[in-house]
Amino acid sequence: MTITAPTRPDTLADPARVPTVVVTGAKGPAGRALARQFEVLRAAGLALRTVGADMLPGADPAWDSTAVLPAVHDAEYLASLRRLLERVEADLLIPTVAEELPILAQTGQSLAPDSSCAVVLSGAGPSAACADKLLTMWALDAAGVSIPRYRAITVGDDAAGLIAWAEGPVVVKPRVSRGGRGVHLVEHRDDPVHTAGSWIAQSFAPGTEYCPQVYRSPHTGEVRVVVVEKTELKQGRVGNAAHARRLPEGEAVDVAWLAECAVTALDLVGPVDLDIRRDEQGVPVVLEVNARFGANSHLAPELLHAVLRDWDLTSAVARPGATGVHA
To answer: What are the record keywords, sorted (predicted)?
Structure first.
């Protein structure tokens, strides 16, 4: 286990200064979930300035201010993000766009001018493993973590061959993508299939689907798991959650245990969002791991509280006499 403890930004030496948090992907599902939580924290007495950054322009009352960034793979992306952090004097950057995580993890603290801004992110290796669903499966498979059968799609694959390989329906998805984009269920021999190496197939697990919200402390490695059940999926039997609910502690303990095993095996720290589903025998298997806040993080607000604690912002922003804040 490699734990790299984040350091407190030097700019917080002035106790009167209000810290600034920048969130990328602010208009996406994960960004919107965080915006809701920051509003609750401010109402409870935390003095924070939030900046929502996104490719899409336009003001958003959920954030104190907004900023426009180029697409992640645009040549100007890193320079634009660096200028933004410098301009708003950011103390903390919370990235929520999947494609930017391995780039930012490689960039490290050199992204932030004078190293004054901490980044909520796992290391370069773990971030890269989670950015590609095939690499995620390889890493979890090697660690003995429960996963579905899987394989890379190759030219010449067809629905009949994949169904025969899986001995049943398969889920085909892009290796690199956000959310449920491109995910489709292949059940019949004449179903269309993407036949390129940039796609992955997994045997279909037909049982209940969960999206555990996990936090692993970068200081101690301690793991906190909140199990969230997807009660309705946007694409019917696969895809993102249209509705979800937080399960009481003590329910689906096997799912919580598996989520912790996956996060630890991948050596992730900070917030993690997973997709786990039960197979035909009711055994949970890990489908995907997102090394960031997810769209349902508002159902587990203790994750954001833990970020503010471990990245050492809480003591700097708590107002005297504030109540309802548990970091």
So the answer is: ATP-binding, Nucleotide-binding
